[in-house]
From TrEMBL:
<dbReference type="GO" id="GO:0008270">
    <property type="term" value="F:zinc ion binding"/>
</dbReference>
<keyword id="KW-0862">Zinc</keyword>
<dbReference type="InterPro" id="IPR001841">
    <property type="entry name" value="Znf_RING"/>
</dbReference>
<dbReference type="Pfam" id="PF13639">
    <property type="entry name" value="zf-RING_2"/>
</dbReference>
<keyword id="KW-0479">Metal-binding</keyword>
<keyword id="KW-0175">Coiled coil</keyword>
<dbReference type="GO" id="GO:0016874">
    <property type="term" value="F:ligase activity"/>
</dbReference>
<protein>
    <submittedName>
        <fullName>E3 ubiquitin-ligase RNF4 isoform X1</fullName>
    </submittedName>
</protein>
<dbReference type="InterPro" id="IPR017907">
    <property type="entry name" value="Znf_RING_CS"/>
</dbReference>
<feature type="coiled-coil region">
    <location>
        <begin position="35"/>
        <end position="107"/>
    </location>
</feature>
<keyword id="KW-0863">Zinc-finger</keyword>
<dbReference type="InterPro" id="IPR013083">
    <property type="entry name" value="Znf_RING/FYVE/PHD"/>
</dbReference>
<keyword id="KW-0436">Ligase</keyword>
<feature type="domain" description="RING-type">
    <location>
        <begin position="162"/>
        <end position="208"/>
    </location>
</feature>
Length: 222
C-alpha cells in the first residue's frame, strides 16, 4: 500500500496465458509475420494482374478474329452474288441458244423433208429391184416418236431380210426406211433407237451414215 493513502496494489504471481504470451513475444517476430503476409498478398495481386492482362489479350484476339470472320463473310456473300449473277446470265444465254437450236432444227427438218420427198422413194424402190409392187411412203416422222409396230401386218412385201434381225419382211408387221434408204422392220428400229446411246442411234445401223434429224418413214407395199 501507499503510506498515508487508501490505495492498495495486489500482485498476481501467475499471469494469464494471454498476458504471458504478450509479455514473452518480442516486437521483431510480429513485424516479420506482417511482412510475410504483405508479400503473399502482393504476390497474389501480381498473379491476378497477370491473369487479367492475359484475359484482356485473349479478348482482343477474339475480337480481331471476329472482325476477320465478318470481313470474310462479307467477301463470300459478294462472291456468291457474283456467281448467282453469272449463272443467271448463263441460263439466259442457254435459253436463247436453245431457241436458236430449235429454230435451226425446224429449218433442217423442213429442208430434209423437201429433199426426202424427192429422193427416198427412188432409193426404197432400188431395195426391191425386180418387184412390180407399188411403193407408198408415209409422212416423215421423228425417230424420237417411234413406237412399236402394229400387231397386224400393214403390207404385202415379200422381200428381205431385215439387216438387224434377219427376219424376212413378209413376217414383219411393219417396215420402215431410214433417210439413206435402208429397210428394216419397225420393231428392230424401235429397239435400236431405244437401247442405243445418242451417237449410235443417230446413225444408220446398216451403212452408219448420219441420220441428220432422225426422220424415218413407214413403207407400205400394195
Amino acid at each position: 500500500s501507499i503510506p498515508e493513502t487508501n490505495i492498495w496494489f495486489e500482485i498476481n504471481p501467475r499471469p494469464t496465458t494471454i498476458n504471458h504470451h504478450r509479455q514473452e513475444e518480442s516486437v521483431t517476430p510480429k513485424v516479420s509475420r506482417l511482412m510475410e503476409e504483405l508479400c503473399e498478398e502482393k504476390r497474389k495481386l501480381e498473379q491476378s494482374t497477370k491473369q487479367c492482362q492475359q484475359q484482356r489479350l485473349e479478348a482482343e484476339a477474339a475480337n480481331q478474329r471476329a472482325s476477320n470472320a465478318e470481313a470474310e463473310l462479307a467477301e463470300s456473300r459478294q462472291l456468291i452474288n457474283d456467281l448467282q449473277n453469272q449463272v443467271s446470265r448463263l441460263e439466259l444465254n442457254q435459253q436463247q441458244l436453245q431457241v436458236q437450236l430449235n429454230n435451226s432444227r425446224d429449218l433442217v427438218r423442213d429442208l430434209l423433208t423437201e429433199q426426202g420427198n424427192q429422193r427416198w422413194p427412188s432409193q426404197v424402190q432400188r431395195q426391191v429391184t425386180g418387184s412390180q409392187q407399188t411403193v407408198q411412203i408415209s409422212n416423215f416422222v421423228s425417230i424420237r416418236q417411234l413406237s412399236r409396230s402394229p400387231t397386224t401386218k400393214a403390207h404385202r412385201f415379200l422381200g428381205g431380210p431385215c439387216p438387224v434381225c434377219l427376219e424376212q419382211f413378209e413376217n414383219c408387221p411393219s417396215i420402215v426406211s431410214t433417210q439413206c434408204g435402208h429397210l428394216m422392220c419397225e420393231d428392230c428400229m424401235y429397239g435400236y433407237v431405244r437401247n442405243s446411246d445418242r451417237d449410235v442411234r443417230e446413225r444408220c445401223p446398216v451403212c452408219r451414215s448420219q441420220l441428220a434429224q432422225n426422220y424415218y418413214h413407214k413403207v407400205l407395199y400394195n
